[in-house]
Hints:
Blueprint: H1 4-9, H2 17-27, H3 30-37, H4 44-55, E1 57-58, E2 73-75, E3 78-80, E4 84-86, H5 99-110, E5 113-116, H6 124-130, E6 135-139, H7 144-157, E7 162-166, H8 176-181, H9 183-187, H10 191-194, H11 198-202, H12 205-213, E8 219-225, E9 229-232, H13 236-241, H14 247-256, E10 261-266, H15 269-277, E11 282-285, H16 299-310, E12 315-319, H17 325-333, E13 338-341, H18 343-374, E14 388-389
Parallel strand pairs: 4-5, 4-13, 5-6, 6-7, 7-10, 10-11, 11-12, 12-13
Antiparallel strand pairs: 1-14, 2-3, 8-9
Helix pairs in contact: 2-18, 5-6, 5-18, 15-16, 17-18
Amino acid sequence: MKTRDERRISSPQIVSVADVRRLAQRRLPRVAFDYVDGGAEGEITLRENLRAFKEVTFRPRNAVAPGSPDLRTRVLGSDLSMPLLLAPCGFSRLIHPEGEVAAARAAGQAGVGFVLSTSSAYRLEDVATASSGPRWYQLYLVGGREAAEAALERAQRAGFSVLAITVDTATFGMRERDVRNGAAALVGGNLLAKIPYLPRLLARPHWLAGMIFHERRLVLPNVIVPRKGAMPLAEAPAALAQSVVTWNDLHWLRKAWPGPLVVKGILTGDDARRAVDEGAAGIIVSNHGGRQLDGVAATLRALPEVVAAVRGQAEVLMDGGVRRGSDIAKAICLGARAVLIGRAYMYGLGAAGEAGVARVLAMLRADLERTVTLLGCASVRELDGSYVDIPAKWAVPRR
Length: 399
C-alpha cells in the first residue's frame, strides 16, 4: 500500500520537475521553500542558469535506430547508472524530517551519486548507512582545520570516496528571501525572535508536525569543534566568512585526504588550470546555484571554457539550472562528464520525502533516455559538441 507521500508524487499529472516544484511550494512554509528556491540579491544568475539551456539547440542524427541507449558512466572511480549526482545541499532537514538520509537512500536505489554537505543535519555515518551507491563528502572549513581533519577521518572510514572542496564562499551570499522570511531567527536560539514568523509555520501543520516529531537540535553534527562540540547551525554563516578556502589549503587537503579531490565553484579557465596544478582530479563548474555572487555567468556558458582549460587532465562536472534530461545531455555535449542537481531533487524532497526524490530521478532518467535516443545515439558516451549548436556570442574556445 502506498504511503501518503507516494500517492501525492505518483499522480499522472506530475510529469516534470516544475510540477514537483509546485507540490513542494504547497506543502512547505514559505521560509523553507524559499530557502531552496531562492538565490542571491536580484537572482540574476539564478535565472541565467535556467535560460542558458534554452540558448543551446540540438543537432540530431535522424533515420537511425539506436535502440535503448546506455546511460551508464564512470566518474572519478564511481560507476553511475546515468551521469548524475545529487549536489551537496545544507541542512535539508528543514525541507523534510529525514533530510539527507532520505535523499541518499533514493540516490543509492537509483544508482547515482550522493554528495553530502558539511552542513548536514545528520551524522555522515548515518547517511553512509542509508546510501547503497557512490557517496562523496563536501567540505567547508567552518570550525577550522582540526575539525575538518576529524570529519575527513570519519568520512574515509564511512566509505566516502571523493572529497569536494567548495571555494566560492569567501562570505555568505545575500539571499534576500531568507532575510525577509526570518530564516536566521528561526534557526537561532532566541525564542522571542521567532514569534513574528510562527503564524507562517502553523499554516503548514503537516510540515510542522514532522519537524516536531523528528526533533533534533539545530547543530552541525559533522563539524565538531575541539573543546566546544557540534557547531550550532546559527553560527555557520559567520564561521564560513572566517574560514575562506585558499589555494594553500589544497596542499594540506592533498595530505589529509587519500582519495580524489574535486574543486567546486570554478567559473574560469584560469582557476580551473590552477586547481589542476594544485592536484585536483575533478572540477565542478558551479556558481552555487546563483546563491553567492549574483551576476556571474551561467554555469553552462562557463563550462566549455573550463573544459578547454583543463585539457583532459581532470574530469569536469557542472551544476546549476538542470531541470530536464535534455539539460543533462546538453551539458555532456559541451564537455561535462556528469551533472549535479540541487534544487531539482530538493523540490522532490519537499514534496514527498524519499519518494519525491526517487520520482525526480526517474523522470530525469526517462527524459535523458528519450533525448539520447532522439539524438540518434546508442550511449551517452557518444555525445559531443557536434550534437549541439551554441550562440556565437558565447565565443567558446576550441580544443
